[in-house]
Design a protein that fits this description.
The structure is a homodimer of 122-residue chains. Chain A has 122 residues and is of the alpha+beta class. Helix content of chain A is 28%, strand content 25%. Chain A is built from 3 helices and 5 strands, in the order αααβββββ. In chain A, the strands form 2 sheets. Chain A has a 3-stranded mixed sheet, with no helix packed on it. At the A-B interface, strand 3, strand 4 and strand 5 of A face strand 3, strand 4 and strand 5 of B.
Amino acid sequence: MQRDTAQRRAIRRVFSRENRPLTPQEVLAGAQSTVPQMGLATVYRALKSLTEGGTVMVVDVPGEPQRYELAGKDHHHHFSCRGCGRMFEMDGCPGDLEQLVPTGFVMEDHEVFIYGRCPDCR
Amino acid sequence: MQRDTAQRRAIRRVFSRENRPLTPQEVLAGAQSTVPQMGLATVYRALKSLTEGGTVMVVDVPGEPQRYELAGKDHHHHFSCRGCGRMFEMDGCPGDLEQLVPTGFVMEDHEVFIYGRCPDCR
DNA sequence: CCCATAATGATAACAAGATCTCATTAATGA
DNA sequence: TCATTAATGAGATCTTGTTATCATTATGGG
């Protein structure tokens, strides 16, 4: 059976506290404020089981390692801050993307990334 | 000085023939139809000098290696085919992305990726 | 046509991110 | 409380993409 360890509690806590897509390194750094000696392998193991269990989802980002965010949210997109490198969630959707799709192509999905400065880095 | 070799001619030719963002592997495969014994290192060297010379640009894609496309085009976005894995260019822009940006954030740039099926893979 | 040297091809070396190994620790059912 | 065994931490290992090495080839100015 799955055991409830201090490490996994700390990792789950980081996700609900931050509520944005996190890299494994960010998860580690956040969780180490509770369990200072935590190792990166523990983070990867937890991310794997959280992903398989449907608690978190993978977010693929252009030119960066994968991030992970809490699953079950409404459709949304992401904002990447060029100051601190953090990624944030943005509610909503531009809609009307069908106009971009050339004749003969079929759209199944889309992603939007906005780059700029977060409030802390302006 | 820079020499004009059969390999570099073939690589430049692949870009104008395909007119879409290519991975180094795709560039190699395309160029090998002209210069069959071409090596991957030659492709990377050519991509580096073409990028530095402003002829091609890097395209960062979510969850994939970098691609390269001809520079100097109008603002556009990309379509990724789930059938063949090729990436295509789409003219235009959804506009009105400012509405997505939460208060306090400053937008500097954006990227849109559409996923689906290309005409060949429908 | 020559020759200096830029470019090439094959492969080794690197880099970064992710996974595996294994001895040790600790959560949980009995 | 105890014993089983899942989970952990540290670091080795693997993977994928990219760059470096080096002997050989071949471009292009003189």
